[in-house]
Specification:
By secondary structure, the protein is α+β, with helices and mostly antiparallel strands. It starts with 8 loop residues before the first helix and ends with a helix. The chain is elongated and about 90 Å long. It has three domains: 82 residues, Winged helix-like DNA-binding domain superfamily/Winged helix DNA-binding domain (Arc Repressor Mutant, subunit A, Orthogonal Bundle), CATH 1.10.10; 152 residues, 2-Layer Sandwich (Beta-Lactamase), CATH 3.30.450.40; 93 residues, Enolase-like, domain 1, CATH 3.30.390. It contains twelve helices and ten strands.
């Protein structure tokens, strides 16, 4: 409705103040407090008239008949698109984020760090997606004996995506036997797609001794599970407990729905995937996400790059009343610094 109506300066000031006040304590804002906080030299009747206009436009709403007003999703959208002034992130904050990406980290570790970084600096839930656009290729494999009949399989997939998988075997194997098994597998797997190597290896297994054959089959099954996971999109989430501090989200039913979304991941991956075409930060407010469980939440995301290609999206999830002027530059800078770190790895 606001596309047909321009807000005058006083209306903009009051909408901004309602959003600012509500973001601090999640309490509806009454006309008396609004008159004091806005600094406008107008009568209480004028304040009420302006609030009535904002409500008519669908920018604010009254949760109860006698209560003050709260921003709507449309109000937040108007605020972000028309009124919000986003400042550059302080250099000290940028240096702190960059330091977290420092050290001799693999690409996978850098991406995992991004979720924790965003959660820590925003006090929201950090989310990072990773798109695997190429088939899993085995680059290195080794085994470690953990205990009787339990073996740790260490896999490096594609460039530096490290996975550990514990498998159960039918008998105990010596370190020498495990080393020989690794040598045999390296002969067939290294430098090839897992799908191709697996088919070839299954034929060769028929010629091996039965006890070695049994171990190889267990190892192959474990590797297959890892490689299957590596061919799909991943979603990392950090700091889910941060949402407990927001009264509008800590209802048991809301929390159950949110944590189901975090665990199932599919809906969030689809939402983040829609950010890949954005040139910068993309924001989904409440119902804009298309998922009822996120109706009280906002998702702020930005794509990150490696080798000139978008390989994922990082961002945060929080209540709709988050401090957008702070969160937006944090997400934007973190995405850019992660891209820089990924593209300058030695």
């Amino acid at each position: 409705m606001t596309e047909k109506h321009e807000l005058d300066e006083r209306s903009q000031i009051l909408l901004r103040q309602i959003i600012t006040s509500y973001s601090q304590d999640a309490q509806p804002v009454g006309s008396k407090n609004l008159a004091e906080l806005s600094g406008l030299d107008v009568s209480s009747a004028t304040i009420r008239n302006i609030m009535a206009k904002l409500e008519h436009f669908g920018l604010i709403d009254s949760p109860h008949r006698s209560a003050g007003r709260v921003p709507t999703d449309a109000g937040y959208r108007f605020f972000i698109d028309r009124l919000l002034k986003v400042n550059d992130l302080a250099q000290s904050a940028q240096n702190k984020i960059l330091a977290e990406f420092g050290g001799n980290k693999t690409s996978n570790n850098l991406i995992q760090s991004a979720s924790s970084i965003l959660s820590n600096i925003t006090h929201l839930t950090g989310i990072v997606s990773l798109t695997h656009s190429t088939p899993a290729e085995i680059r290195h494999i080794e085994f470690m004996r953990l205990s009787e009949k339990r073996i740790l399989v260490i896999l490096v997939i594609n460039e530096d995506d490290v996975h550990n998988k514990v498998i159960q075997v039918e008998r105990d194997y010596s370190d020498t036997e495990l080393q020989q098994a690794a040598t045999t597998l390296n002969q067939y797997l290294l430098g090839q797609s897992f799908e191709t190597a697996r088919n070839r290896l299954k034929v060769e297994l028929l010629n091996l001794k039965s006890d070695v054959n049994t171990m190889m089959e267990a190892i192959l099954k474990g590797m297959e599970e890892v490689c299957a996971d590596s061919n799909g999109d991943e979603l990392l989430t950090t700091g889910q407990s941060n949402l407990l501090q927001y009264s509008e989200l800590n209802d048991i039913n809301n929390l159950r729905g949110l944590f189901d979304v975090f665990n199932e991941k599919t809906d969030l991956l689809k939402l983040l995937d829609s950010c890949t075409s954005a040139s910068g930060v993309e924001i989904f407010i409440g119902s804009e996400s298309g998922h009822s469980v996120l109706s009280n939440c906002s998702v702020v995301g930005a794509p990150y790059h490696k080798g000139g290609e978008i390989i994922g999206v990082l961002g945060v999830i929080g209540p709709t009343r988050i401090a957008y002027e702070q969160v937006i530059p944090m997400v934007d800078v973190t995405a850019k610094l992660l891209s820089l770190a990924l593209n300058t790895q030695k």
